[in-house]
């Protein structure tokens, strides 16, 4: 091949790549169907319109292993940030970006459009549905930690005026546990950016009981010999109380965008379940010291 011929071929390939890239960029907001999934246009969805304007799907993530969290190396893990968010972005032809947030601001941030979806494994509550919508993808639940020498052996014993139950502000525990334990005294405090549970407050006897996610039961007892899980870890994993429905938070009233996220979750349900199982292992469930 002559130098001129190589230049022509190379130029043609470059032009083709540029045109293809430009066409792909312009496709965001045009709507259509890809991989059997209906993609809403910018006219159908204000969220899609904003995403296409910004060139990115922003996923707000408050730490919640195994659904969405950072590992010891700072890598974002979990199906919400590794699978669902990126899949939605790919279908729209843009990139995905994680926006780290605290639990106290997770819902207000979506309402204020600081991000386009909540990719944390967000617990469903009736209160939250007043301002946001959900795409549910899994279930989990709550168990509790007490001092190892505590007289509390059952959930019924927690529902008394003498029990101080510690929760984090902005979490579903703050709204749901007063209903489950109406007689207990609820103590709310802000959660740090790194997540976690109120283990130190229980150990220091500032509170008597604190809720934990059931997937952390074994890790808690292994990391904190002075604490005990109620009910015991094996039962906790099978029968959390209350049981929660978890999912992705999406903007209120944008049915077209919600439908897109729902289609991704439905298509990838087996992968989502497998990833949750993977990240529920002690290798990834870190409860700190």
CATH superfamily descriptor of the largest domain: Periplasmic binding protein-like II
CATH architecture of the largest domain: 3-Layer(aba) Sandwich
In CATH, the topology of the largest domain is named: D-Maltodextrin-Binding Protein, domain 2
Topology pattern, helix = H, strand = E: HEEHEEEHEHEEEHEHEHEHEHH
**Radius of gyration over alpha carbons?**
23 Å
Q: Provide the residue-averaged pLDDT.
A: 89
Q: What percentage of residues falls in helices of 4 or more residues?
A: 25-40%
Overall tally of structural domains? 2
Shape: elongated
Continuous helix count: 10
- Largest sheet entry: 7 strands, mixed
Question: Based on DSSP secondary structure assignment, what is the total number of beta strands?
Answer: 13
Q: How much strand?
A: 25-35%
Helix/strand-derived class?
alpha/beta
Stretches where pLDDT is under 50 for at least 5 consecutive residues are 3-25
Determine the N-to-C terminus distance: 67 Å
CATH class value of the largest domain: Alpha Beta
